[in-house]
Amino acid sequence: MPLVKSGKISGDGFVHIADDAEIPGAGAVLISGARFLANAETLSRRAGQTGVIWPNNRDVDELVPWIDRLAVIALVFPSFRDGRAYSQARLLRERFCYRGELRATGQVLRDQFVFMLRAGFDAFEVKKPADAEAFASTAKRYSVFYQPTGDGRITALHRRIQLRHSESASQ
Question: Is this model's pTM higher than 0.85 or not?
Answer without folding.
Answer: no
